């Protein structure tokens, strides 16, 4: 039997134990037993030498987390990289690839545990940049960029750095890639040819009608004229606050800078009428409102769908489909805040070697040899060169080294394949330069004050959007229902909060 | 099934007007049939999804893309299984990891849980209240994900080791409580008393007397933890990067997560075709079949203990 006093003592002891365990998660100062960094290599004074020569710096090992499927040959490629990096900046890297679907689940845990990794991939869609930057997970890098990242600043479109600022500071190095986004209609070329269509005329949803009709009447029933899944939304020219799965945005053609409820906009209403008409005419699949995805590319039994594009995207689509796909734009390319934060590398706030991490990022974004090594593997093993900047994949690449190029660093340094047009990267730069900037570019909305409202509205969106946006139900009847439900869930409060933050940001960035 | 046909027979044979001779407490044959039919339907609805998965795994990929799922596919093919046999090194490796983890984990769990539970089930153990409380307390208050992660990675340094899949779940408070209750109800004090009089040591009592009469309980916990280890994917997701240590379920959940990711972010990741790196629909189903069958086949071995039920008397009171 145990006395009450003893029980009490045990409870106190347990709480103390628990609090020490959780308490030291946030501070790493007293943890020298970490497997990732060789002990005693504090390069705090190496920064003062200022020299970029390898022999003046202590050797360090950088822990890097990247997104993508783990690759079999990464260790051998990493060895090659480390030879080169030791020579250049006396650093080695230890890269861990974490699979697409797992990345956003695992990185927050790693960060919260206070592990002192050095570099991690972050973006607007995986291990979200904005909340983590606000939370202090990343190091502000403006000074480091000035000191060790001058080459990056030369190469990078300056709008990337503007667009990824949080409260006037940069917390990650953006990857130089396509900066604008643009929705296009995609068409299965065999039908375009068969009916001698002039698709260059097609821009709006309404323009599609005669062509869909032709397909519906002329082709067998299993050819879907407009092959879209439940995620389809008619294009409307809005700058969305929280992506197109949330009904708040700013009209791109207006200059008043006001956030509105897009469900009440005239543009959407007329588009919904059109899509409803198409649905009733049988241009879309009958079960579109519950269709998670659609295998139209694989089966080839489709005429039109929609997709986001980049220069020469149709070549890639055609290649993976095995037949020709052509496109026609719905809009001019636009630059949003989200497109500037589409792929970035942040330095952890717990990093022990931020200077060296920045030197590595600098090389990654400016050094052609290193950039292609991490992207394509070892020459002669994973690829062979056809000419200076053009390569051909060898079988080993498909088997053991397929890396997501856009998530690794400056895309414009990478070799192209012989199927690619010679001016591919030129076209990308052209695409970026031609784009116009959205009214809220550079503004990052912080949803924390209206978290509950955002969550409950998102739930309503999930329920109402698919049937309404795909025309499966009558918009006149169901749209008002959706709007009143969202209003009850606090939509106006969200709009007011967004407006307030936007106006403050606008005033600060005159 | 046999009972069902008998009762059907009885319903059919019983002529109208004639007094039926049957047990006064039995339900009428008609109701018996209705209840049996209901249970059959329920069982079918449990089994059907799995049968469906097996059917899909034998369907030809192209047929699937064109017609969607169907119970009687037009074209059957073994391609999915052929593909797994050819490029299934990872799968075989993962199966090995899962088996190792399950066997070692279950043995350790049984050893730790049963000894702990036995100790706190003995009324003459002084500290039993405190140790019961210690186990019970963790059921109510857990540190959460991040502290657990810190303990495993920074205190125990188990990252990328097979023990990271075993240690976090070998001592389960719930199993301890179940086992303790089981011991207190099925092992009478009288037995222990008499064993003591005959000169058995404490450990001897435990291994030679208590364990043999507690087999149903041990089997129950054994099955629980076998299933637990076999189906656990979260620990590997957190702690394992080495592809040679990835268990089967984690392999499957990764594919699932990547699929979800593609559906959610199709517009974000234009320039890279993730879908191309994923196995096809039929291969995924074949993987599920190969991952689930072994554990489904293990169940009958535990079955006999469950039928005995969790009550075994061994003393006349």
Automatic annotation (TrEMBL), chain A:
Keyword tags: Signal
Tree of life domain: Bacteria
Signal peptide span: 1-18
Source organism per UniProt: Paenibacillus graminis
Biased composition annotated in UniProt, kind: Polar residues: 27-50
One Pfam family this sequence matches: DUF3502
Domain DUF3502 positions: 440-507
The protein, known as: ABC transporter substrate-binding protein
Gene3D superfamilies registered for this protein in UniProt: Periplasmic binding protein-like II
PROSITE patterns found in the cross-reference section: PROKAR_LIPOPROTEIN
Start and end residues of each stretch annotated as Disordered: 27-56
């Amino acid at each position: 039997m145990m006395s009450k006093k003893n029980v009490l003592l045990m409870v106190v002891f347990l709480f103390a134990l628990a609090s020490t365990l959780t308490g030291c998660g946030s501070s790493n100062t007293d943890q020298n037993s970490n497997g990732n960094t060789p002990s005693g290599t504090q390069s705090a004074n190496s920064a003062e030498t200022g020299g970029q020569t390898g022999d003046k710096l202590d050797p360090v090992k950088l822990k890097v987390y990247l997104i993508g499927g783990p690759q079999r040959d990464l260790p051998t490629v990493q060895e090659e990289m480390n030879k080169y990096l030791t020579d250049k900046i006396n650093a080695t890297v230890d890269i861990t690839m974490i699979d697409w679907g797992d990345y956003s689940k695992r990185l927050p845990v790693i960060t919260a545990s206070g592990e002192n990794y050095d570099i991690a991939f972050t973006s607007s869609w995986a291990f979200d940049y904005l909340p983590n930057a606000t939370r202090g997970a990343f190091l502000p890098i403006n000074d480091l960029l000035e000191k060790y990242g001058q080459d990056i600043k030369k190469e990078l479109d300056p709008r990337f750095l503007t667009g990824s600022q949080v409260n006037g500071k940069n917390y990650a190095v953006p990857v130089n890639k396509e900066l604008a986004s643009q929705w296009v209609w995609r068409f299965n070329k065999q039908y375009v040819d068969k009916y001698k269509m002039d698709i260059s005329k097609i821009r709006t949803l309404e323009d599609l009608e005669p062509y869909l009709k032709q397909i519906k009447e002329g082709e067998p029933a299993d050819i879907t004229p407009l092959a879209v899944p439940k995620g389809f939304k008619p294009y409307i020219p809005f700058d969305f606050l929280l992506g197109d799965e949330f009904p708040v945005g700013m009209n791109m053609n207006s200059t008043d800078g006001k956030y509105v409820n897009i469900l009440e906009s005239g543009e959407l209403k007329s588009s919904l009428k059109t899509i409803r008409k198409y649905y009733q005419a049988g241009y879309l699949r009958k079960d579109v409102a519950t269709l998670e995805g659609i295998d139209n590319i694989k089966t080839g039994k489709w005429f039109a769908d929609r997709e986001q594009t980049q220069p020469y995207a149709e070549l890639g689509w055609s290649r993976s489909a095995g037949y020709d796909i052509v496109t026609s734009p719905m809009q001019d390319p636009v630059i949003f805040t989200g497109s500037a934060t589409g792929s970035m590398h942040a330095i952890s706030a717990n990093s022990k070697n931020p200077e060296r991490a920045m030197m590595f990022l600098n090389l990654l974004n400016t050094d052609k040899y290193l950039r292609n090594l991490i992207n394509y593997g070892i020459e002669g093993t994973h690829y062979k060169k056809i000419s200076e900047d053009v390569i051909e994949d060898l079988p080993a690449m498909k088997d053991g080294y397929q890396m997501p190029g856009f998530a690794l660093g400056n895309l414009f340094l990478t070799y192209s394949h012989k199927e690619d047009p010679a001016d591919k990267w030129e076209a990308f730069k052209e695409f970026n330069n031609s784009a116009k900037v959205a009214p809220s570019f550079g503004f990052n909305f912080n949803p924390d004050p209206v978290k509950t409202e955002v969550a409950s509205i998102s739930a309503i969106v999930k329920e109402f959007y698919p049937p309404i946006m795909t025309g499966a139900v009558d918009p006149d009847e169901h749209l008002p229902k959706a709007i009143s439900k969202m209003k009850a869930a606090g939509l106006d409060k969200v709009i007011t909060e967004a407006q307030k933050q936007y106006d403050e940001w606008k005033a600060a960035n005159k | 099934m046999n009972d069902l046909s008998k009762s059907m027979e009885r319903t059919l044979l019983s002529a109208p007007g004639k007094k039926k001779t049957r047990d006064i407490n039995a339900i009428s044959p008609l109701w018996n049939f209705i209840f049996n039919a209901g249970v059959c339907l329920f069982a079918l609805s449990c089994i059907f999804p799995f049968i469906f998965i097996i059917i899909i795994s034998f369907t030809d990929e192209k047929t699937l893309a064109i017609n969607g799922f169907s119970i009687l596919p037009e074209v059957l093919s073994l391609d999915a299984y052929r593909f797994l046999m050819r490029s299934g090194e990872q799968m075989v490796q993962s199966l090995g990891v899962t088996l190792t983890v399950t066997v070692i984990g279950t043995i350790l769990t049984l050893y730790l849980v049963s000894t702990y539970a036995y100790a706190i089930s003995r009324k003459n153990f002084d500290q039993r209240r405190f140790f019961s409380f210690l186990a019970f307390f963790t059921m109510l208050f857990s540190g959460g994900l991040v502290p657990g992660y810190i303990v495993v990675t920074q205190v125990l340094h188990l990252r990328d080791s097979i023990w990271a899949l075993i240690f976090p779940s070998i001592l389960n408070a719930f199993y301890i409580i179940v086992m303790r209750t089981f011991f207190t109800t099925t092992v009478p004090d009288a037995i222990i008393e008499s064993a003591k009089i005959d000169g058995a040591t404490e450990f001897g009592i435990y291994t030679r007397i208590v364990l043999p009469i507690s087999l149903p309980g041990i089997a129950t916990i054994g099955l629980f933890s076998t299933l637990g280890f076999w189906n656990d994917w979260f620990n590997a997701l957190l702690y394992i990067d080495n592809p040679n240590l990835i268990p089967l379920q984690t392999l499957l959940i990764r594919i699932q997560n990547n699929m979800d990711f593609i559906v959610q972010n199709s517009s974000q990741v234009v320039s890279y075709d993730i879908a191309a790196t994923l196995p096809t629909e039929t291969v995924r189903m074949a993987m599920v079949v190969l991952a689930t069958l072994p554990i489904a086949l293990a169940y009958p071995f535990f079955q006999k203990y469950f039928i005995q039920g969790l009550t075994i008397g061994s003393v006349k009171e």
